[in-house]
Design a protein that fits this description.
The complex is a heterodimer of chains A (659) and B (307).
Chain A: H1 2-23, H2 29-55, E1 61-63, E2 73-75, H3 77-102, H4 110-129, H5 133-151, H6 157-184, H7 193-201, H8 205-223, H9 232-238, H10 241-266, H11 272-295, H12 299-326, H13 330-365, H14 376-379, H15 381-394, H16 401-416, H17 422-454, H18 461-464, H19 472-490, H20 492-498, E3 511-513, E4 516-518, H21 520-541, E5 547-550, H22 567-570, H23 572-577, H24 579-582, E6 585-594, E7 597-608, H25 612-633, H26 640-658
Antiparallel strand pairs in A: 1-2, 3-4, 6-7
Chain B: H1 2-32, H2 42-52, E1 55-58, H3 63-82, H4 97-117, H5 121-152, H6 157-161, H7 174-187, H8 206-209, H9 215-240, H10 250-277, H11 286-306
Helix pairs in contact in B: 1-2, 1-3, 1-9, 1-10, 2-9, 3-4, 3-9, 4-5, 5-7, 5-11, 7-9, 7-11, 9-10
Classes of the chains: A mainly alpha (659), B mainly alpha (307).
Amino acid sequence: MSFLVQNALLGSLIFTVLSGVIALGGRSLLFHKLAQVLLVVSGTLGIVASFILFLQPQAVLQISLASSFFPILQLDLFGAIFYALISLVSVLCAIYAIPYLQSYQSTYHLRSLNALVAAFVLGMQIVILSTSPFMFMIAWEVMSMASFFLVMSDRSHDSIRAALLYLIMTHLGAAAILIAFLLLAQGSLFVDFSTLADMSWTAPVWMLWTAFSLFFFGFGSKAGLVPFHVWLPEAHPSAPSHVSALMSGVMLKVALYGFLRVLLFILPPIGVAASLLILGFGLLTALYGVLYAVVDRDFKRTLAFSSIENIGLIFTMLGVAFFASSQGLQALYQTTLVAAVFFMIAHAIFKSGLFLASGLIVRAVHSRNLELMGGLAKRLPLFSVLFCVLCLAAASLPPFGPFFGEWMFFQGLLQSFSSATPLVSAVLVLTFAITALVGGLAIFAMVKLFAISMLAEPRSAHAREVHEPPAASELFCVTVFALLIVALGLYAPVVLDLIGGGILTASRFELIVGNSTVQPSLILWLLLGCVLIVWILRRLTSRASFERMYHGWDCGQPIDASMEYTATAFSAPIRFFFRLVLRTKKAVQVEPVVASNTWIATRSMTLNLRSIWMDFGYSPLGRLLIGCADQVKKIQNGNIRFYLLLIFVTLILTLWIAL
Amino acid sequence: MITILMIVLQVLVVLLVAPLVTGLVRWVKARLQGRRGAVPWLVYFALLTTLKKENVISESRSWMFRLVPFVVLGTILFLVVTLPLIFSDGGLAQIDLFVLAGVLALGSIFLVFGGLDAATAFGGMGASREMTLATLIEPAVLTTFAGFAVVAGSSSVQAIFGQGMTVVSHPALLLSFAALVLITLAENARYPVDNPATHLELTMVHEAMILEYSGPYLAMLEYASSIKLTVFMLILGNLIWVQPVSAFDLSTIGMAVLGVLVTVVVGSCLLALLESSMAKMRFFRMQEYLSVAFFLAFAGLILTLIV
């Protein structure tokens, strides 16, 4: 049995590599399809390997090639959760990519794109499997570099800008992680994680704090934690949609994996201050991300901001977990940690699904701008139902998967309110209230996304002309994600049992936190039952056929799509209520048609969404750097004697310091 | 078996009483404002008539337009089935406050979808406002519920509303109760949040969303809002003095139904009085109302934790 699993694990890596090699094989579409098929095989093997591990939770799978020289790769239960997610999403993205990329042959360079996707997946797989900082960092870099090239794969000016911003941020993060590892391991990158853990338990406090801060920045910037998130809303939307799905659905989870691996398995328990730091940044991220998700008008950027919000929620949960652990609230620690992992799984599923769906919408409408969409529910009914399910799930509504993640978290908080000291209670209550606000705003963002893109009349000619349904395999992938998110809700107890959160399940149908139970299947069937009863009653009491079609109420003049509410108008109240945070710049320009009459005028409005972090953080910093560089440039005056003097001075200084 | 009977009976009573509530509020309001007003039971006839009318469907609608009335009424029915409104065992133990808040939100969302799908400016306007209200009331709802849950020692609706916990027996709940009143007004689109009587586009929220609905669908949506108001009134009533009964025999059922009627009549009169004595708030001042609701709820939660 174990032999099979190990081969599955090794096989999944080998097939990923093969996929990348085959992708480079040639221009023919055959290679494109073959590469995706190989990626599917690789993912399937990965799922098999992780599931066998779920069923034997004590086992640890190892791959050791040429024993002592080559680094060992291993998979434990904790890694298996993430490995399964990577495999699952990459399988579905590969199936999706077959027809999706064919329709973009002129935009993308298929050969390199497929090879990069394979490298990207391989990087993520090895990050999970690595057992030493050395292997970890190499895989991390493979993942980062591959995704950097993927972001700019349409070679447009905006994508390249986004990719460069991403490159800078991801490398600052990687550098931070590398320094932290070097610091803990006292300069050697080849120790394995368990030795590293031993070393860090005896490390002095300042070193632990430095390492923690560096890890927090490194993994946090990769995960999109505010204020290190600036790259995310630019980079994720620029990539092809299946890559966006991989980046948002899985890569962010890999960052979380790294963070958790370090905090749970390597560093000694972090104290109150560090956990409050995580909690604070988590809440800030969640609130900031969700506000921008509400007001943004770009379809994929809304999704990216929603990812930031979800990551914020997960960090909040983790922060509460570590805070509880430092306060000795063991029950709360377990509950919130499990809730965080569960929510992570849910997020990987629904966000990947949403990004895949976004690819189909953007392709149909030829724009990412929400203001040009609309009316798609009438034109693509089946697809819009799936999209609706994914949006409702993303809004954390019952009876879908993410709701139960939040439910566990809220229950955990609620039940610890009174069992703790006043200070702890205050932290928990505040967290509860802010998370509730974030939850409400998340609903707004998702409703906007669905309703503006799918409902009402089309707002542009392209949206009006959408008739062709998406290809079967594209639809299949979105369907699978939609079904999975329903199943994740329905079988939440089973899933929790599998991933080692059995403390929270009472039976195969019930979740239990303290003295509260919830039965997901009951909620689902009861809701469906109520709707069915209403349907029956309507049939009994009124005639279904007694109806006619007519245009909407138009106040006496024909209505068209320009009178509908747009995404900007829909989110206007929120923009108004949160204007202090959002600081949008609105300018209305009025130009009279005839100079003598000011009443008849053409009006145009521009509304700029600004980012306070860009305006007050990154841009001044950038200007400062460039300013310093300009000053330094003054000594590069082209005079060779001056350069010789500089070398001489440097030599003297070096000698003086060295001796 | 008894539980199922109780639930069925509870559903029947609430469904039957619901239109009366809307009618009563309108009648009392008319009386208070010096008008004669239509008889309270006119609403029953109005609903039945609307049900028989022709269903006019907007040409720009999608499948969502048809789904909305079913889901909206369905989620309200879910509340009636799961909450212990009349019988203390009438609720389901597995349903807790977070589920309740989620289902309420689900109902609001579908109403919003319906408003937007009609593709008119009114629908969008109502939808945007309703969504804003539903979003910003959410923290107040959850925090209020948390306050109740802390006092009850459990968050299941059964433990909170079904076991005779009242403001009188637990004075710590006073602030949370006040917050719940504000939430009730906001959730049911009443003064000062929304004006249920107007059809003036500048002021309406709920009515704007259902503007394109007619015939049976309109009846369903109107009925849903009646039931929702009734459910909230019963919850508030139960939290003051009327206890849900636990036994299942003729006399207690009689008492329970009487209790429901009294709650509903008193509640309607109070609501009418409130709506006659204050003005609707400007929509862009709504954040003040919602903040007050939230801070009341928050203070209520703190109070329950301290006491």
